Amino acid sequence: MAIVEVSNLCVQFSAKGQVKTAVRDASLSINSGETFSLIGASGCGKSTILRVLAGLQREWQGGIKLLDGTIKPGVRFQGDLRRNVQMVFQDPYASLHPNHTIYRTLAEPLTLHGEAQIAVRVEEALLQVGLPTDAMKRYPHQLSGGQRQRVAIARALLLRPKILLLDEPTSALDMSVQAEILNLLNRLKQQFDMTYLLVSHDADVIAHMSDRAAYMAGGVIEREFNRAALVRGEHRMNAA
Ligand SMILES: Nc1ncnc2c1ncn2[C@@H]1O[C@H](COP(=O)(O)OP(=O)(O)OP(=O)(O)O)[C@@H](O)[C@H]1O
Ligand SMILES: [Mg+2]
After folding, report:
1. 3-state secondary structure of 57
2. Which end of the chain is more exposed for a tag (fewer CB within 10 A), N or C?
């Protein structure tokens, strides 16, 4: 069953009087429980698709079914949609507030959504991503890159989302740490029954993680790979 269905998505930006088409007529469908990946060269439109699905990019055209409903351009995500679709970015340092403790970073979304037992939930969130609970007293600069990305993942999971949008979640990390984070993501996906949309430049990461992948170029989806094609490495010539 499709949990995400994007039909003929088009996203344009105007800059300096010029109209730039970031995504052109893109269609894709992601089944519940799948890891679906986007590959392609820098600037081809991958992050833009994720930002639309996260409700961060609200100007677009086309049709989008997300979870049980449809979303419309210009509309701010609220309620269940806001909870159920979360995004993890490439650079955890940029995505965590430098002057907030990890406790505050993790407590805030819970408070905003009116959740109870905040302290317990923060501890639980840290343990789920393999961090000690005393990490909550620290600031982002007092953690390693891998630990920061674990915090970003913990934050994304706080509200028990159904869909996780992962925009190059490990490309800023050392190789050995990358593998740990990818394994953590796979474990959490099983544990919480999530669906992933992953962007990565790394053909090995794509092969390791994905059920299916789509190759984009110049805002267009040019080709899709199923699991068998990924195992055969057919995506490798297209991974940037
Ligand atoms: N807010 C914006 N304003 C103007 N142009 C934008 C904006 N966001 C993205 N673009 C342009 O849209 C195109 C697609 O950008 P996008 O960030 O989706 O690419 P990407 O595939 O994620 O690239 P990368 O692999 O480098 O992250 C690029 O040409 C980019 O410059
Ligand atoms: Mg990007």
Report:
1. coil
2. N
- Judge if the beta carbon of residue 43 lies within 6 A of ligand 1: yes
**238 within some domain:** no
CA 13 to ligand 1: nearest atom = 4
Tokens 């994905």 belong to residue: 210
47 CA from centroid of ligand 1 (Å): 7
Mean confidence (pLDDT) of the chain: 95
Atom 29 of ligand 1, residue of closest alpha carbon: 43
Looking up residue 23, the CATH number of its domain turns out to be 3.40.50.300
Q: Which of 29, 24, 21 is nearest to 8 (CA)?
A: 24
Query: Do the Cβ atoms of 148 and 129 come closer than 8 Å?
Result: no
- What pLDDT digit, counting tens, does each position of 96-125 carry? 999 999 999 999 999 999 999 999 999 999
46 lines ligand 1 (CB under 6 A): yes
Q: How many structural domains is the chain composed of?
A: 1
pLDDT (tens digit per residue) in 24-80: 999 999 999 999 999 999 999 999 999 999 999 999 999 999 998 999 999 999 888
Ligand 1 atom nearest to 50, measured from its CA: 18
Question: Does residue 92 lie in a domain region?
Answer: yes
Which residue's C-alpha comes closest to atom 24 of ligand 1?
A: 42
Beta strands in the chain (DSSP E): 2-15, 18-31, 35-39, 61-66, 69-71, 85-88, 163-167, 195-199, 212-217, 220-225
Ligand 1, closest atom to CA 216? 21
114, part of any domain: yes
What is the domain extent for residue 58?
2-232
Q: How far is CA 60 from the centre of its chain?
A: 19
pLDDT at 92: 78
